[in-house]
Every structure is written in structure tokens, then in C-alpha cells.
Amino acid sequence: MFNLFKKKDFTVSAAADGELLPLTEVKDEVFSTKMLGDGFAIKPTDGKIYAPIAGKITTVFPTKHAIGITAKNNLEILVHLGIDTVELKGEPFNVFVQEGDSVKQGAPLAEMDTAAITGANYDDTVIIVYTNMDIIDSISPISPGEVEHGQEIQTIKFKS
């Protein structure tokens, strides 16, 4: 009863089907050194991308390669589709959401043509980054391996 207002643990789910990887294995130093924040990556087996959390769409990049979501608890997540795919000027992406939309965890966000991305010599890894680390106390470790979208990946504990 007295824990009524205590912040609960928050779970983040897989944004795609594929192989779950630690962020440190991403082949881009901005992500692998956690310059933008901590998180995880998925090497996708198809191009379907889903919301890893429920929240409000706060950013859809004009090049469609990245989507920002903010949860009710103010956690900000960046869903980044591929590495250096900004160079593709939105061509291999079809985004189903727009800024201001509310999404449920697991809702379809976008689709990307992974064959077009890899065929143009870009990496199609999907990267999930928590961009406001200042509100996070701890993040559970991931268990690398095959995952399905919607599967719980990490638990976040927030600072009091």
C-alpha cells in the first residue's frame, strides 16, 4: 500500500525479429561507445519494425531512418534503422506513424527493405537507444540470441 507512488520497473521489448546484440557490438562508434545512450541492437530477419515501448511519437526523421518515442514516465527512446542509412534519403523505409501519434508497445512503426539496404552496402541493424540516461538508475543486461518482436529485452529502473 505504501509503495503506491514508487516508480515501477519498466520493460522494453524487441522492436524486430532477429538476433539480439549488445550495443557494444554495433559497427558504429556513436552507438557502440554509447555516446547517445545505452540500449541494444537487433540484426533483423525481416524488415518489420515495432514499438519497443508505449508512448508518444516525438520525432520521425525526414529520411525515415529513425523514430523517437517518449513514454509516460519520460523515458526517451530512439529507434534507429540501420547504420548510415540516412544516406539513402528515405528510399528503403515506409513509416506508419507521425509525430504526435500515440502508440502501444508492439504497434507497427515502420517497414524497411533490408535487401535494398544491404544491397547498397549499408548495415540493416536496428538500434534501440535510451537517450535520456540521466533519469535511469540501472538497466538489466541482455541475453544475446534470437528474439521475436514484442519479447521483453530489458528492464529499466529509474532514479528516485
Q: How is the secondary structure organized here?
A:
Elements (H helix, E strand, L loop, with lengths): L9 E4 L4 E5 L6 H4 L5 E7 L3 E3 L4 E6 L5 E5 L5 E8 L9 E3 L6 E2 L4 E5 L1 H6 L3 E8 L5 E4 L5 E3 L4 E7 L2
Antiparallel strand pairs: 1-14, 2-3, 2-13, 3-11, 4-10, 5-6, 5-9, 6-7, 7-11, 8-10, 12-14
At a glance:
The protein has two helices and 14 strands, in the order E-E-H-E-E-E-E-E-E-E-E-H-E-E-E-E.
Measured between the Cα atoms of the first and last residue, the distance is 18 Å
Low-confidence stretches: 1-6
Structural class: mainly beta
How much is the average pLDDT? 95
Strand order of the largest sheet: 9-5-6-7-11-3-2-13
Per CATH, the class reads Mainly Beta
- How would you characterize the largest beta sheet? 8 strands, antiparallel
Helix and strand sequence = EEHEEEEEEEEHEEEE
Pfam family, one: PTS_EIIA_1
Domain PTS EIIA type-1: 28-132
Protein name: PTS glucose transporter subunit IIA
Subcellular location: Cytoplasm
Give an overview in words.
It holds the Pfam family PTS_EIIA_1. Helices cover 6% and strands 44% of the residues. It is mostly beta strands. It has a single domain, classed as Glucose Permease (Domain IIA) (Distorted Sandwich), CATH 2.70.70. The strands form 3 sheets. An 8-stranded antiparallel β-sheet has the order 9-5-6-7-11-3-2-13. A 3-stranded antiparallel β-sheet has the order 1-14-12, with no helix packed on it. Strands 4-10-8 form a 3-stranded antiparallel β-sheet, with no helix packed on it. Strand 5 and strand 6 (66-70) form a beta hairpin. The chain starts with 9 loop residues before the first strand and ends with a strand. 37% of the residues are buried. Mean pLDDT is 95; it is low at 1-6.
